[in-house]
Task: structure prediction
Amino acid sequence: MKNTFGQSVAVTLFGESHGEEIGAVLDGLAPGLRIDEDFIRHQLSLRRPQGKISTARVEADEFRIVSGVFEGRTTGTPLCILIPNTNTRSKDYTKGLPRPGHADYTAQCKYHGFQDYRGGGHFSGRITAALVAAGAIAISALRQNGILIGTHISRLASICDRHFGDYEADLEMLGDLAFPVLNPAIEALMKKEIEQAASEGDSVGGVLETAVIGLPAGVGEPWFDTVESVLSHALFSIPAIKGVEFGDGFALADLRGSEANDGFRSIGGKIVTTTNHNGGINGGITNGMPVIFRCAVKPTPSIFQEQESVDLDTKENATLKLEGRHDPAIIHRARVVVDSITALALCDLLALRFGTDFPDA
Amino acid sequence: MKNTFGQSVAVTLFGESHGEEIGAVLDGLAPGLRIDEDFIRHQLSLRRPQGKISTARVEADEFRIVSGVFEGRTTGTPLCILIPNTNTRSKDYTKGLPRPGHADYTAQCKYHGFQDYRGGGHFSGRITAALVAAGAIAISALRQNGILIGTHISRLASICDRHFGDYEADLEMLGDLAFPVLNPAIEALMKKEIEQAASEGDSVGGVLETAVIGLPAGVGEPWFDTVESVLSHALFSIPAIKGVEFGDGFALADLRGSEANDGFRSIGGKIVTTTNHNGGINGGITNGMPVIFRCAVKPTPSIFQEQESVDLDTKENATLKLEGRHDPAIIHRARVVVDSITALALCDLLALRFGTDFPDA
Amino acid sequence: MKNTFGQSVAVTLFGESHGEEIGAVLDGLAPGLRIDEDFIRHQLSLRRPQGKISTARVEADEFRIVSGVFEGRTTGTPLCILIPNTNTRSKDYTKGLPRPGHADYTAQCKYHGFQDYRGGGHFSGRITAALVAAGAIAISALRQNGILIGTHISRLASICDRHFGDYEADLEMLGDLAFPVLNPAIEALMKKEIEQAASEGDSVGGVLETAVIGLPAGVGEPWFDTVESVLSHALFSIPAIKGVEFGDGFALADLRGSEANDGFRSIGGKIVTTTNHNGGINGGITNGMPVIFRCAVKPTPSIFQEQESVDLDTKENATLKLEGRHDPAIIHRARVVVDSITALALCDLLALRFGTDFPDA
Amino acid sequence: MKNTFGQSVAVTLFGESHGEEIGAVLDGLAPGLRIDEDFIRHQLSLRRPQGKISTARVEADEFRIVSGVFEGRTTGTPLCILIPNTNTRSKDYTKGLPRPGHADYTAQCKYHGFQDYRGGGHFSGRITAALVAAGAIAISALRQNGILIGTHISRLASICDRHFGDYEADLEMLGDLAFPVLNPAIEALMKKEIEQAASEGDSVGGVLETAVIGLPAGVGEPWFDTVESVLSHALFSIPAIKGVEFGDGFALADLRGSEANDGFRSIGGKIVTTTNHNGGINGGITNGMPVIFRCAVKPTPSIFQEQESVDLDTKENATLKLEGRHDPAIIHRARVVVDSITALALCDLLALRFGTDFPDA
Result:
């Protein structure tokens, strides 16, 4: 559905990069969940640009919750979060030449020229701020029910982070890191790559890896609303995500069945798998093991090198050279967007499975 | 939504591996589309097991269309296709020990033991026969509107097929191949790998690559119903798919923005991109270039080696050794399922965009 | 959504009056519900034509459940019920002249002439047999959870039945009546009216009144998915229903607030209302009192008098005189359709509220 | 779906009576539609209280459109309208005693006491201001495509307005009337009834009748998404609506088929019906004639007489006497809400049928 995601717990996004306000309506969360505005602020800070490796456009991200909260708790009715746009420089944008790798051309095809083209308009990564604010509430709600989510940069320009080890400790640690890597030694190397690309007017991408622990077994549907289907649907909404894989994902293509199957063991009355090549999901349904997935993040399309474009009015070939403020990498900022939309999708799956009083206040 | 996919053009699946009949309801296709039963039969034949590289369970797949077709054309009202199950051997299945890599355990968690466990029940790949029959009608409808879909095995056990070249010729060729590779020389090598695995009681996976040509620009939504979101939602419903990537996908993680961006050129008044790293989709919306994606197919979980399991009644550890008839590879059979569900998802996106008389009779 | 109703518990209808088979896919019911085929047969018998007051086309309504049931209980996966059409006389129908009061003309506008026009095709009341079969399972499931549904003819050609009194006794009684009235003395009078109309080649309509008891308080949504919205959406799908009212409905227009408000009392710790002018629903949400609604059923449009029509090919005015087998009244047969679709809608509302294990096995 | 209505054109509502802001997100309207802020203001003025027949709480209804509009036209992306609450007196409300006829008790059952109870919270008629603002845009869009909507008070406390005559003239006239009646002589009589009820601390209800002209034939679905289903779903969301009937509605119950059927005639090549007992809808699909329906509006539940209630904490019986500012009638104010939600529902049906560029810019 357009700009609305979720069946029982649903989020609706609105806003443009250079419009007056962006926001989200978060509907269907259980009543009575405590709203932690500091945590929302913290999550928004993780999305904000950071120093040399990010754009110079920094927004205050002052948010207002104008509905759905009463005496500090969710009411169960729709919660609207608004974030004003303050630091916009629309003169950096012109309509005529679509930027390669961006949605300028496809927006023109879809909206016939009526789209707000400034800064990517409704397609802008800016809109993810609203998603992060809404997601923060979902993350809190899941945490109160023992479900933890965390994402790290598993690869950036061929530099690889270590794998998840002690999930609980790793996820706790990631929550506080502005540059989310499990191996602290890798941070400087990755940042150097980003700065190198920036110095050449270029940009880098990477791979994000996410773990979710604490999910009950038996969530998801065999056909169409598999957990993979619902999560990938959500994840591919995030600008720049071009691949999603669960468990060993594409690496499974080179394994034998005897290597890929996860055998079962009973440990203290609890049934677990001895390995987790399937990423906690069998037949589209959670099996109680950690849910693991990775997202491919393409390099930021905004670069400062000369690029080929076409004048949409005259249909003549042209050359484009961007000015303004842009990120040489967005992967570290995209991380919290992945966590947010994952939390929203999981709240929906859980409420569909267990009813609208889930997650529990 | 459970077992139903699509908003304007929707497919609903039902049936179990060892039940009486499986089937699909296909709703929302434009009225007046000619039904080609021979093409449906052809598509079903592509899904059927083949010789030594497949299971010995071969179904006739005699289908009946019991509604929605009048005088050889779609009426615009729901079309129900039924396929009886004839060749079932339920005694090969027992309920107590969940098979690793299958949905037996998660089905138990979700359905509390009431599921039909024989042959995987509703989770069985058998159900995809109904999807293929419904998809055949969607593929025909798209073809009548100049939209072609085709999938090949781009990798199997580290053996790689060539890339797409002349899309139209390649897609035409693939439609007739029971073992879909673009480079004919590669077929024997891949089959040898499958037979080798089979001889060891094991199985293999691989990667499928799909191309869609002829799609108009401007289809899809910026948030949540991006083309990537909708297609991945559909694709991850197919059993054994554990990864989906668009354009260069995960390879984009190691590219610079200057390498990943697709510049625009005007050729004869038509705007095209000079490269297609983004797989025909920008900002979630088609740009008129070929839509390209790849799916990771895990090795078939049914293997004949001894595996670890747990007795669900006693919660005691146990050993499982499968008997019966199973595929050492399903990737060549999964190909037509990918084409089918892609066609269904695209018909839905096109009908949402252009109205319920699309695709045109 | 086209031909599919429900979000968590959903029913999908297919078939045409003179097609091969009609049927329904019922998805999302809790696993483990016992299937009572005799009760399904009983419900279908209530929909079947009866003696002089009905059409001479009588179908055996032999149904087959081909999926979703294992060892006599629901599996939790989609249940497909098929009913073959056996007693069809297509020669009674011609395409050219749309019948007044029927969907012939609107089907032509929507489907451009590709619709199956024989016997009303997919618009036919015949399709409700599949709805009744699916609804029988929902009715059983609700009954096992203490929720009872029943409908009587509250008015027919100005003759009025008595009001509900002892709900439980009345609902039990109605379940066995082929001609559902609470006051036995009224049956002969109403039937005489129907026979009188039939003898004049004419038909009659009436009002059906439904009561649902045992629903918990707190089901429904304040906006858009109010209980009234969801039920009316379902009810207005039934051919011939042209009005739906809850509680006192249109009679509320002439009451004062002091007469229409239902005061609260506490009786043995349970909160009840002393009157029920609002039909058990406040603010779109159940309050625990009986849910009461009435449906206006228009007179059967198939009559044997001469009527005005237009030749759709030539656009010339014409005269139409129906032949064949038609009902002078369908209200007594529509009753079980109302019960069925009400049960399906309530199962959906309850599963959305309390999760997919509701109604409980 | 909770708080979101529509599939292709969708509206999402948020806000509480005494919250900071209320609002609506309107998504899926065609790009390029001109936004007429004066018309939105005009529509909001029709919803605002008027003199002696309304509450003394008058809101300025200053709205802000913060997204989805660029250079005075819709962009095709979601449009968010915000309306601040300014004139609130929360001290008039207490939580303990549910008001008869209101949603206080059912909200408690659904939200477990976490709901914002002040002024009815999210259930308040106040929220309809956002619906009216969004609906004004839909009404404008339909008007640009030749589709007109209008509603009058057809009955209030046994006083009846005249029927529609010249639809186009009547609908034009109604658009400017604060008290919408077709017969000007009736206005004073109806207002006198309202004032009389008010003087007794009581309230009145009535019946609203709506006409829609200019709709093309062939819109709607045969099962589940009939035009009646979709409109009634929308209309029953409006607080106080307890009945909806199409065409002759409940009066059809006493007609014969020969009286109720609408014969067809060809007039200048256009097929019309000679009567319109079916309200422009056959088989759930528009036939090109005016769509006619009526809504029963119950008397405002807020009255100043002593009423029975129960203390929700102690479960003891109690007496309630409201203070504050309330409407003795809301029917004249509800009129524009009916028009608004009708327009939104029709935009959705039309976009589903004809694609997302409808209504045309």
Chain C touches chain A at residues 7-8, 77, 222, 352-356, 358 (CB under 8 Å).
